[in-house]
Amino acid sequence: MSLQALTYIVVGMSFLLYIGIAVWSRAHTTGDFYIAGKGVSPLANGMATAADWMSAASFISMAGLIAFLGYDGSVYLMGWTGGYVLLALLLAPYLRKFGKFTVPEFIAERYYSKTARIVAVICLIFISFTYVAGQMRGVGIVFSRFLEVEVTTGLLIGMGVVFVYAVLGGMKGITYTQVAQYCVLIFAYTVPAVFIAIQITENPVPQLAFGSEITGTGTALLDKLDDIVTSLGFNQYTSGTKSRIDVFCITMALMVGTAGLPHVIVRFFTVPKVRDARLSAGWALLFIALLYTTAPAVGSMARYNLINTVQTGEVGAVDGNLEYAERPRWMHTWEQTGLVSYEDKNADGRIQYYDDTNPEFAGKAAEFGWHGNELSVDRDIMVLANPEIAGLPNWVIALVAAGGIAAALSTAAGLLLVISAAVSHDLIKGIFAPNISDKSELLAGRVAAAFAIVVAGYLGFDPPGWVAQVVAFAFGLAAASLFPVILLGIFWKGANKQGAIAGMLTGLIFTYGYIEFYKGLFLKWAGSPWGDNVAEHWLFGISPEGIGVVGMCLNFLVMVTVSRMTAPPPVHIQRMVDDIRVPRQGAESA
Amino acid sequence: MSSEQRLAYWQANLRLVAACLAVWFLCSFGFGVLLVEELNRIRIGGFQLGFWFAQQGSIYVFVALIFFYAWRMNRIDQKFDVHED
Q1: Which residues contact A465 (CB under 8 A, 6 or more apart)?
Q2: CATH 1.10.4160 domain position(s) in chain A
Q3: Is 80 exceeded by the pLDDT of residue A283?
Q4: Is the dihedral of CA A77, A553, A472, A502 positive or negative?
Q5: Which residue, among A109, A165, A213, has the nearest Cα to A575 in the 3D structure?
Q6: Angstrom distance (rounded) from CA A553 to CA A546
Q7: Burial track B1-36 (b if 16+ CB lie within 10 A, e otherwise)
Q8: CA-CA 20 to 30 A from A61: which of A53, A111, A112, A480?
Q9: pLDDT band, very low/low/confident/very high, at A537 (cuts 50, 70, 90)
């Protein structure tokens, strides 16, 4: 059977499964719609959280990013997992005890303020739309490569599927669909990784394989990789180029950002008990870790495979490089998408792949008669192309396509729900129409979800160019705005309304301002008044990706200072804080 | 629940959280970032230890930490009789 037919069958079957689950688990009340009626088991919630969290970026891009960054890629691995420790220890159990529907709702009640709620809703909507646009784009790309339809058509199909189960099922439908999606995506990620691990090292466990010896050479994979990448002028794979303070700050911003992301936090509102919220975070991270510990193995093996394919002989030897005419089939197919490209700069008909930006290597390259790097490979294709590079059967490739779509759809659905809840619950019910009936609110939630899908689809169809950059911004924003306010709301009774609003605004404005100055996100500066976006000009040497940490510290500082200078929160708020710190219902009043 | 008991419960919680976060920090920011070059001189199989912590070890520690916290916290809840039924 042809690859295309197989892919259609596998992807089609996965869609049928998702829609079937959605129909079976339709939402009947706002409780079902926002938080699945608080009836999800910790294990199922853990799986759903993992699928919700792992987006197209985790599934499609991360291993490729690590393949090209080496050690520097560790910031994503640690950053996007370590946040769950903060979430489990500092936020999830208490927010579950609080027992409402949304994150802005917690902020509104804890800080007895509608203004705080509106600021929180603004942060939330911005963060979530940024993400969701990227997901829809991911769906479009997978469709266009594997089903050979237009990106737009792929996008419309994706929107249709999300529409059916997010609008019908709400959180309940999404949760059970995400459980299925997790199974699809982890299977699709692991199978090719195991095959490739066996091919290179004969060790079937990818996590161990990339610390093993390459079959028949007696050299460890990572040592060999360090050797060959440096012989081609690249930076050593196992050591980084970023400064320590920058690695530190980016990792911290991603961790804290993870813990402050509304669509992640809200997952812990869906379990029956406080103790389930703690446990559920553990399950979620375990399921996430299955992919996140495989990714660096995939990254290193993909880099090794890629270089081995191109550099067939000794570096610098006349016949040391692959002849373009003899390139493997996967290069052909990906060249058609424009994501792999070749330019024969020295007209020798062979492919030279090396770091032509390294001045120390330039002399050597000239000696070899190389006139520049001739092969460019888009980082995003490494995972999708991996099964082809390793020559795996077609069903594996079809599976990877379905896995990529599952990752993108599950995250998109979770984000859309958070957006719709913010609109129908926080804005409509919370501020504009407090007397709205449960039924009308449910309808409003569905309409908001449908509207959000259309906007997301539009952003995915016509990405404003800054989607990839804004991801870093979204983390920084979550770290600098929502996280400190929630954390102090639980751990410090003295935190008051004035402090929270001042803190959120400070964190938000500082972080946004810094990124705007260096990256020109929305205003498109010609050049920053402080200079180019390079390390010498950064504040304390911290890149815009990591600046959320400084924003977070400022938020804490301002919040504490302002709270101290103004009246303490009313007694009933302090009692509420006492109450959320204790798991048993009513233990406080007894 | 008396206010002394409440305070004792909360302090037991804070001590546990502080201990867990110390391990969390040490294994990721400590071993994986700040001390990475020093640890890279030690090898385990084909891995340099610092690199291994940055790309593998820290994640395993995170998972273990959350389960440990959930287990310990349940015990503390029972000791202070504030657990859910």
Answers
A1: none
A2: 3-304+390-464
A3: yes
A4: positive
A5: A109
A6: 12
A7: beeeebeebeebbeebbeebbebbebbbbbbbbbeb
A8: A480
A9: low
* pLDDT tens-digit series, residues A452-461: 888 888 877 6
Window 3-42 of B: residues touching A by CB (8 A cutoff) are 6, 9-10, 13, 17, 20-21, 24, 28-29, 32-34, 36-37, 40
- The token pair that represents B19 in the structure block: 């201990």
Least CB-CB distance to B63: which of A78, A210, A282? A282
Chain B residues in contact with A213 by the CB 8 A cut-off are 46
Distance, in Å, from the CA atom of A487 to the CA atom of A500, rounded to the nearest integer, reads: 11
What is the CATH number that goes with domain A3-304+390-464?
1.10.4160
Is B20 close to A274, i.e. CB distance below 8 A?
Answer: no
Question: Is A262 within 8 Å of A415 (Cβ atoms)?
Answer: no
| 8 Å CB contact of A78 and B58 | yes
Reported as a single tens digit per residue, the pLDDT across A316-356 is: 777 888 888 888 888 888 887 777 888 888 888 888 888 88
A354's CB contacts (< 8 A; 6+ apart) are A232, A233, A234, A361, A365, A370, A373
| Residue A45 phi, psi (nearest 5) | -65, -40
Which pLDDT value is given to residue A566? 93
Domain extent listing, chain B? 3-79
Long-range contacts of the stretch A197-200 (C-beta < 8 A, 24+): A197/A297, A197/A301, A199/A390, A200/A301, A200/A304, A200/A305
At residue B44, the 3 state secondary structure works out as: strand
For residue B5, what are the contacts with CB-CB under 8 A and spacing of at least 6? B80
